[in-house]
Specification:
- This protein has 20 helices and 15 strands.
- The protein is α/β, with parallel strands linked by helices.
- It has 3 domains: 76 residues, no CATH class; 123 residues, Alpha-Beta Complex (Aspartate Aminotransferase, domain 1), CATH 3.90.1150; 193 residues, Aspartate Aminotransferase, domain 2 (3-Layer(aba) Sandwich), CATH 3.40.640.
- The strands form 4 sheets. It has a 7-stranded mixed β-sheet with strand order 2-10-9-8-7-3-6, sandwiched between helices. A 4-stranded antiparallel β-sheet has the order 11-12-15-14.
- β14 and β15 form a beta hairpin.
- It is globular and about 85 Å long.
Length: 475
């Protein structure tokens, strides 16, 4: 006997066949706008849902018409065929928002992409000789200029850079690192795990809050391959603390003939004390202090595409380049182009705060922020958005695991009294075109204007007017 009840069987008999739906007049525009195979698979997916609902007794018979089912098929096609990795408007105030792609790419870098990456390019061919050459030579001279290093290269991210360095310099050997620097980065990737994967053996020294030079020196054996410093770029230990300056660690490395690796994480190319940020080491300082190899991210404080930059001693960089892992971790022409174009913007100390979005957002002043917040507030009211809109003081963050615990005063627009839950409001904002992501706290939605470009203030205001129509909009 069938497990399906008689009422359910009656409903199942009324579900249109795939062929009937394909031949229906309402399906003609769907077939004209989409590949036939995708339309067919979408119809089948919706029919599976309808059948499941009919068996469970949860699908109303009134929605079994071809028109009703094809209406659902149309929505399914929109969901499938729209760009999934789409533009978003960042109203969170987190400048390097990992969930939103971290750094906003400079316009000059986007121009370079369009100009040089839409066709063939001299990615790995020398213009002068016509011979093959390393692709990272496009950015090496820029790294030399900006950091004072002898040589430089780039891989897909900084975790990959750390893995490649340790595998090259210390595979099968011990690497000494302070216990207080055993960081975990985003996605639950931990330095000890990266080190184990590289083939090196971790030797922890010191304590969580205090490590001294003698701790490193006492741990050195004939099997030691390198000394490693990892900057705590995504957390801070305060109070009774001590760590070994990179100058002292480099001196110990020279004394014991061991390479010193400095994993800086964020990678500051200038002094971020300008923004009242503290304790963010500069790449040039590490190089000048004697670190043999330094690595850092390209998409954090540099504000470029994702990448892990490695620079330092010429002989060691050449060894790193020749490691087979380097090919597995190498970047493509688009990444090289964006990083090269962004690094060039750092050469002009005055213009870089205008041309690099990450720095421009960091550098915005309160009067300017207040003006944009008031404009957003006024525009939302003028367009008839329902709710209470107020300009308030707030704090922005750099984000992306960079300079933790240090906030930037900002201005936000708070939204309350909208007749729907903040969870539903946030979902409607994400479903907007373009998607908008703001910050929810208790019963308020906050829009931080620090991370909004000038035209995006208009976009947010339009979305608020469209979403917040009446008190009943949440029903």
């Amino acid at each position: 006997m069938s497990d399906v009840s008689l009422p359910s069987q009656e409903i199942l008999r009324k579900i249109p066949a795939v062929t009937d739906l394909l031949n229906h007049e309402k399906c003609e525009p769907l077939l004209a706008a989409n590949p036939r195979e995708i339309v067919v698979s979408s119809i089948r997916a919706i029919l599976d849902e309808v059948r499941a609902g009919a068996i469970e007794g949860t699908y109303p018979e009134s929605e079994l018409s071809p028109e009703a089912i094809l209406g659902r098929v149309e929505l399914e096609l929109i969901r499938r065929m729209q760009v999934s990795h789409c533009r978003s408007v960042n109203a969170t105030g987190v400048i390097l928002h990992t969930g939103l792609g971290r750094a906003v790419v400079p316009e000059a870098a986007m121009d370079a992409l369009r100009e040089h990456c839409s066709r063939y390019s001299l990615l790995a061919t020398s213009r002068e000789t016509g011979k093959r050459r390393d692709r990272d030579l496009h950015i090496e001279w820029l790294l030399q200029e900006l950091t004072g290093c002898e040589r430089g290269t780039v891989v897909n991210n900084n975790a990959g850079a750390t893995l490649l360095i340790l595998n090259t310099l210390a595979e099968g050997k011990e690497v000494i690192c302070s216990r207080g620097q055993m960081v975990e980065i985003g996605g639950a990737f931990r330095i000890p795990d990266v080190m184990e994967t590289s083939g090196a053996k971790l030797v922890e020294v010191g304590t969580t809050n205090r490590t001294h030079l003698r701790d490193y020196e006492n741990a050195i054996t004939e099997n030691t391959g390198a000394l490693l410093r990892v900057h705590n770029s995504n957390f801070r230990i305060v109070g009774f603390t001590a760590e070994v300056p990179i100058e002292d660690l480099a001196a110990l490395g020279r004394k014991r003939h061991l390479p010193v690796v400095d994993d800086l994480g964020s990678g500051a190319l200038f002094d971020f004390a300008k923004f009242d940020f503290e304790d963010e080491p500069m790449v040039r300082h590490s190089i000048e202090a004697g670190a043999d190899v330094v690595c850092f991210s390209a998409d954090k404080l540099i504000g470029s595409a994702q990448g892990g930059i490695i620079c330092g001693n010429a002989d060691l960089i050449e060894r790193i380049r020749k490691n087979p892992f380097a090919r597995a971790l190498r970047v493509d022409k688009m990444c090289i182009t964006v990083i090269e174009a962004t690094l060039k913007l750092f050469l002009d100390e005055k213009k870089r705060f205008e041309t690099i979005p990450t720095l421009r957002m960091l550098n915005r002043k309160l009067p300017d922020l207040e003006k944009d917040a008031e404009r957003l507030c006024d525009m939302a009211k003028e367009k008839g958005a329902y709710g209470t809109f107020e300009v308030e003081d707030g704090f922005s963050q750099l984000g992306g695991g960079s300079i933790p615990g240090q906030n930037l005063p900002t201005k936000v627009v708070s939204v309350t009294g909208i007749g729907m839950s903040m969870e539903k409001f946030a979902m409607k904002l994400r479903m907007n075109e373009p998607a908008i992501v703001a910050r929810t706290q208790k019963d308020k939605m906050y829009f931080d204007v620090r991370t909004l470009e000038h035209d995006e203030v208009d976009i947010v205001a339009e979305a608020l007017a469209k979403i917040l129509v009446t008190p009943a909009c949440g029903i």
